Amino acid sequence: DEFDGPSIKTDIPGPRSKELLRELNSLSTTHEVQFFCNYEESKGNYLVDVDGNVFLDIFMQISSLPLGYNHPALLKVLNDPANLSTLVNRPALGNLPPADFPLRVQNSLIAVAPKGLTNVKTMACGSCSNENAYKAIFMWYMTKQRGGAPPSPEELETCMYNKSPGAPDLTLMSFTGAFHGRTLGCLATTHSKAIHKLDIPSLDWPIAPFPQLKYPLEEHEAENRAEERRCLDQVHALFREYTSAGRPVCGVVVEPVQAEGGDNHASPEFFRELRAITKEYGAAFLVDEVQTGVGVTGSWWAHDLWQLDDPPDIVTFAKKMLGGGYFHTEEFRANSGYRIFNTWLGEPSKLAMCEAVVKTVQEENLLENVRQAGSVLLDGLKHLQTKYPTQLENARGLGTFIAIDCKGGDAHRNKILTDLKRKGIQSGGCGERTIRCRPALIFQPHHAEMVVNAMDEVLAEQA
Amino acid sequence: DEFDGPSIKTDIPGPRSKELLRELNSLSTTHEVQFFCNYEESKGNYLVDVDGNVFLDIFMQISSLPLGYNHPALLKVLNDPANLSTLVNRPALGNLPPADFPLRVQNSLIAVAPKGLTNVKTMACGSCSNENAYKAIFMWYMTKQRGGAPPSPEELETCMYNKSPGAPDLTLMSFTGAFHGRTLGCLATTHSKAIHKLDIPSLDWPIAPFPQLKYPLEEHEAENRAEERRCLDQVHALFREYTSAGRPVCGVVVEPVQAEGGDNHASPEFFRELRAITKEYGAAFLVDEVQTGVGVTGSWWAHDLWQLDDPPDIVTFAKKMLGGGYFHTEEFRANSGYRIFNTWLGEPSKLAMCEAVVKTVQEENLLENVRQAGSVLLDGLKHLQTKYPTQLENARGLGTFIAIDCKGGDAHRNKILTDLKRKGIQSGGCGERTIRCRPALIFQPHHAEMVVNAMDEVLAEQA
Ligand code: FES
Fold it and tell me: B57, CA 20 to 30 Å: which among A366, B296, B358, B436?
């Protein structure tokens, strides 16, 4: 009961969108608005705008809708009178949880907990998930340093004034091209676009190069291995450099695929060795699965594909989980109250929805669907890059987490995105010249074919 | 249709709460859990727990519920089928807003915008509201510095590595005792409790002393004026010190009443002069109304009471507004896209609820109710501090935003809070030895009398 396909009737944005844009612009900035939507009429993989245009949506609200629009399983949760009090009375979840909170956590988050990570802390978005994971790492590190002793009076006093030793000069390593959020702590580890960071004071933390692999992978094995080696050597060097400068590196944060940064992949071997290096230096290993999690790679978590012997210490999530938080090992439980805390700590109604997502993915075998639809899409894009070798290269992906680069750079990429929109395909960009596909888990092989056909038409017009 | 009064049947926490605590503790830390709640049965000013105990709640989920539990106006919003698609399809609000977004913003946020602040940016919680307000201040400052010129290639390059000049060494002034949130940027301006800050690396930003006034105010006018003068002189000194060290102070952030820090008040004159000082140094003035906003002081915004000639540049909100964000002047609009941005930027369903809150406050004249109930409560507490002069002092407040100090310090305060809970009053602490009242806007004079009577009994038992 979706639409049969996209249908575009007006310019994008259409006249009604333009009118609403003017209204909104008098109250708030609107630089990023594409068009206004009719969410009531949107269905499954199809987004409807206020001018009656229907788009096949392969971007799904910046990769944040797991089951597309108005999925019956989610409508059922919100229509269930038993959930009404959960929706209307948002609690201070840390202090006064609802009766069903343990069971809800069990059925939603713990039901899909990464192997080896038995604990979870709920948060509200990707940024507070990462911010609090960073804090958990710093606290863990200092607790180890103290060897069981309580903090000193000097530590308790100096921290109040942002000074060492109470606010110690600890660091966290991130990678070039990374995106972990935009609040100040997260932003210190984000290095995807200048416009996100310009003018904002930051922290001098180590930044390692992320591998820049060549595609197709099978034709560049030796080169790519050398590139990953170069990056891992730099990780070693930064650990030594910062530690000898008295600025311990307490952890490393990494995305399984750098999403905002341009869909940059690295091999499972790279991540396995990165995990080993963090162990070697006594640092925590934090995997940010805010965009890669929840089945989009064909596994529930992208890092499942690395087959680690040692699980990560912390895995953060948000977006398609519908709320945020982080999984962690026993070792990373806060050692006393109010150290990892805020008023809301997420929201029980999001857990109720997450529970329905987890159940639907299992019942409808959606991971298998993702693998099938993803393979049709990736094969189609590979075919297009052969057909249009002056326009496209580097088709790559896992599951439906797929991207391709535009040879003509930023302008070329944006032209293709605009033309796709005119043909009723709502997609998105990342990095400098990349088109990324981030459909919902209900995106099927026949949708993939429509995307490939539309792109074929767009590319033919450019050629 | 509330309860007639509190009713306590078991120990707090009761046996069912203890059982759930054990369950939850196997999945997540639980240091801060007080007891588990039955939100379905909770009503108005009364919170019901899973053991059937009924509390008169004057803390309202850390001051975050505007209309108490299960208010009909909010139930109506959530039961309205027209809102279902708003609840189920959370959009990337910056890119693809729903059709009713401009009208919703108008009827919820702009309808109560502080005088002179015509723009608003929606966010999801107090922390991202403050983090983004800080970023807006730094961007505004650097845009002024550039005098219309675009950023230099060097700035664009260095910011990617957290280095100056792209990530400049700018600072933001805050006050001792302040609380502005717990993400790293917010935490650099929070100075209420060591346990919030210990072990977390921070930024060397200026921290001015916040006035410590003596009560009753009318008996200590000269002393208090001198104390405020001392603090303002320090503000001047810090502006000069940091600026001459090449670390410009771009803004000052302040709460109208320091809430977590112990309900510390300052006079309208203090804030008026603080505003003038920020102007003098070309810095922004940010008022954090996350806890003081939404009518609790008897005015919609606490800073209304200062009668500023020059409005603040930015006012942040969250908690009782049900979502977060910040109001700002035209000058503080971001100058290009994706500088102030994140995936969700709040949530339209929270605006729908906020709209109902705004309407209910107006229709039911709740600001007047707050003033009346607050005056009964404050008078009652003043009477108690006269009756128990060895136990209580410094009763103070605006509207129902009321606090009183316990002479026996932390342990004494916690004993009173526990005893109050046993008598069915759910309240909270702040600062080192303060009890704070943060009831909903529907808290009435007869509820205030119950609180005073219960406290009288508790104090008599201690005496
Ligand atoms: S920082 Fe995550 S919701 Fe505000």
Answer: B358
